[in-house]
Every structure is written in structure tokens, then in C-alpha cells.
TrEMBL record:
Protein name, entry field: Methyltransferase
One biological process term in Gene Ontology: methylation
Domain Methyltransferase: start-end pairs: 46-138
Pfam families xrefs: Methyltransf_25
Species of origin: Brachybacterium phenoliresistens
InterPro entries linked: Methyltransf_25, SAM-dependent_MTases_sf
């Protein structure tokens, strides 16, 4: 059993924010906020796993009222250094069960975070919780990577995803249980042959797009759009990720 509080601790929260770089780069964050603001259609939004407010803060600045759900105390403390509870209310709890406010026009879950839920059961519960927070016809947006299992060499269970100065990302994959563990290895690139390195590991359960769509159907959603990125590029068989927009189906009469 993974203790998510220990996984997303003070150290992880401190390292999470990289202003102007990585997932905080304007070319990444700008299209994300622009698309979410359009999909909110003038209503309010709820971010599941709001973290340190990477998306929520600029989305609020764009005129969308935002609430959040966040499990990690450390991530929430980091968020509160930037905005107070009057600006962005947040309920501390599990995104599969926690309740935050009334009927929103948009619920969103970005940057592969649904994969932090390590069972299919909990991932389906996340969809159902999103549905509980939406007004009729509201949207649930999920950003997720596509497993690149074709990169696995025969007989191997791991891939090197990033190799750059001072950092390696190695993913090991359990094909039976759809589990992937990312090994983040950081070291001093100026010291050849040093044994000093810092390793952190994050577990995930990967989801195929078709499986994600079935989870959505179980919670009463219909797929409205799927793009390869926030720039709304076409999603193809070669896409490394996707932004999927689900619409809450109207109740049957």
C-alpha cells in the first residue's frame, strides 16, 4: 500500500514548482489555461489534485472561479503561500471521495495525475466523483500520457525516458498489472564516477485511451473531444499523450 502523504511530502512540494520551465513553461501552461477557460463556458471549475496551484492560479486570473481537492498536506501548504482560501478554496482529501462545493461546469485533472491512482477501481471512482461535482452537461477533462510499450525491447521491462545532464528518468513496467514506476535519478554531472546520486520513485497505473473511455461511460460521461495536446492537435496512433474532454450525459427520462 502506497502512503501518498509520504510520496508527496515537503521535499516533493518544494521541488514541484519550476517557474518558467518544464510544465510551468509559458508554451505549456498558456494553452492549458486558455483551453480550460473556454471549456468552462463562464462557469466555475474544480481541479482534482490541485497541487501547488500550477493551473488553478492562472485559470482564476483568467476569470474562472476555481475550487480544488488535494490529498497532500505539503502541496496544499505550498499553494497557500501563493493564494489564500478566499481566492481558491480547497478541500483536503482523496480525489475519489472528497466533496468540494456544488455543481461546476468543469472538472479537470491534468498532467497524468489520474495514473497516481493505482487500481482500476479507484480510477473509476475518480470519474464518478467528478460526475458528482458537475452540473448537467458539464465537462470532465483528463490529460494523460499514452503508454509507449513499443519502446520495450524483447525481454526487457524498462525504458530510459530522459537522459540529460544531471538527470535520468527510467521507467520500469509491469505489463500484467499495468503498473509503471518512474525512477528519477539526479546526480552531479561534473563529477565522473561519483557514487553519489539521489533516487526518487513514483508509482503509476497506466490507462489505455479505450479503457479511459469505458471508465467515463460507467460514470455517465460521453467522449466529446480528444486531442494530442492542449494546442488541440489531432490525436493519432503516434501520439504520446492526449487531452480527453468528456461531457456528462443528460439524465434519461
Amino acid at each position: 500500500m502506497i502512503d501518498q502523504q509520504k510520496l508527496w511530502d515537503t521535499d516533493a512540494a518544494r521541488q514541484y514548482d519550476t517557474p518558467g520551465e518544464g510544465m510551468f513553461a509559458p508554451e505549456v501552461l498558456g494553452p492549458t489555461v486558455e483551453t480550460l477557460a473556454r471549456l468552462a463556458e463562464g462557469g466555475s471549475a474544480l481541479e482534482l489534485a490541485i497541487g501547488t496551484g500550477r493551473v488553478a492560479i492562472p485559470l482564476r486570473a483568467a476569470g474562472v472561479p476555481v475550487q480544488g481537492i488535494e490529498l497532500s498536506e505539503a502541496m496544499l501548504e505550498r499553494l497557500r503561500e501563493k493564494v489564500d482560501a478566499a481566492q481558491i478554496p480547497v478541500v483536503q482529501g482523496d480525489m475519489t471521495t472528497a466533496v468540494a462545493g456544488g455543481a461546476h461546469s468543469l472538472v479537470y485533472l491534468v498532467f497524468n495525475t489520474i495514473a497516481n491512482l493505482l487500481s482500476q477501481e479507484h480510477q473509476v471512482a475518480c470519474f464518478r466523483n467528478a460526475a458528482r461535482h458537475l452540473a448537467p452537461g458539464g465537462r470532465f477533462v483528463v490529460e494523460l500520457w499514452v503508454p509507449q510499450l513499443r519502446a520495450l525491447a524483447p525481454g526487457h521491462r524498462g525504458t530510459v525516458e530522459i537522459s540529460e545532464e544531471g538527470y535520468l528518468l527510467v521507467d520500469t513496467i509491469d505489463l500484467l498489472d499495468q503498473r509503471l514506476i518512474s525512477h528519477h535519478i539526479r546526480f552531479d554531472p561534473q563529477v565522473d564516477g561519483s557514487r553519489d546520486a539521489r533516487i526518487t520513485r513514483t508509482p503509476h497505473r497506466y490507462i489505455w485511451p479505450s479503457e479511459l473511455d469505458l471508465m467515463a461511460q460507467l460514470a455517465g460521461f460521453e467522449l466529446e473531444d480528444r486531442w494530442a495536446d492542449w494546442q488541440q492537435s489531432p490525436f493519432t496512433a503516434e501520439s504520446a499523450g492526449h487531452v480527453s474532454v468528456y461531457r456528462l450525459a443528460p439524465p434519461q427520462t
